[in-house]
């Protein structure tokens, strides 16, 4: 039983497993998220993004962006001169993110379909890194790697939330 639990525990951190999971869930992710949080998920995202003090023209990396659920709150702060770099490795989620980008007329949103551990985001290039509901699918070891990656892309002294 313990062995079984361990193999299930490890599987939930497996990259291919997580990617397939989100590809499958992409059809209903936003609806399920909204319903199971009794509508609070939108408010929670707004509250968390508003904790980051952004300025007009800032560059924000929204890692594990999903369908871009956090964008509207950052866009309010960074304006037309700022930029969001939105990264996710699930093609399913990215497809919905692209539709959201079109709807928002988000010409200043760059979507990257990439693994966060192997991203093309340049060193010291962003003013803030945000991640909504993202890190729960990572093991402690992966979280350590993620913190190194976040530190790499952030400009010195800037913020991760
Ligand atoms: C729970 S969703 C969060 C989506 C969104 N940020 C939100 O506020 O709802 C987690 C996202 O992380 C993505 N993800 C998980 N591991 C990843 C990795 N190693 N690289 C890129 N994206 C990853 C999944 O595809 C999924 O879209």
Automatic annotation (TrEMBL):
Segments passing through the bilayer: none
One Pfam short name: Ubie_methyltran
Keyword Zinc: no
Keywords assigned by UniProt, alphabetized: Methyltransferase, Transferase
GO biological process, one term: methylation
Annotated GO MF terms: methyltransferase activity
Tagged with keyword Transmembrane helix: no
UniProt superkingdom: Bacteria
Protein name in UniProt: Class I SAM-dependent methyltransferase
Organism, as annotated: Mucilaginibacter humi
Source species taxonomy: Bacteria, Pseudomonadati, Bacteroidota, Sphingobacteriia, Sphingobacteriales
């Amino acid at each position: 039983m313990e062995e079984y639990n361990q193999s299930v525990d490890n599987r939930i951190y497996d990259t291919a497993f997580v990617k397939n999971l989100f590809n499958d869930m992409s059809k209903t992710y936003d609806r399920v998220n909204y319903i199971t949080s009794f509508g609070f998920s939108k408010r929670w995202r707004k509250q968390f993004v508003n904790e980051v003090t952004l300025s007009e023209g800032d560059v924000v990396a929204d890692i594990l962006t999903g369908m871009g659920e956090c964008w509207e709150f950052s866009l309010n702060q960074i304006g037309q001169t700022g930029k969001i770099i939105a990264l996710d490795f699930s093609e399913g989620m990215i497809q919905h993110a692209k539709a959201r980008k079109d709807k928002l007329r988000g010409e200043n949103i760059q979507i990257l379909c990439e693994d966060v551990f192997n991203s093309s985001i340049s060193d010291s290039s962003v003013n803030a890194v945000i991640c909504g509901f993202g890190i729960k699918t990572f093991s402690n070891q992966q979280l350590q790697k993620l913190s190194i990656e976040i530190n790499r892309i952030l400009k010195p002294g800037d913020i991760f939330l």
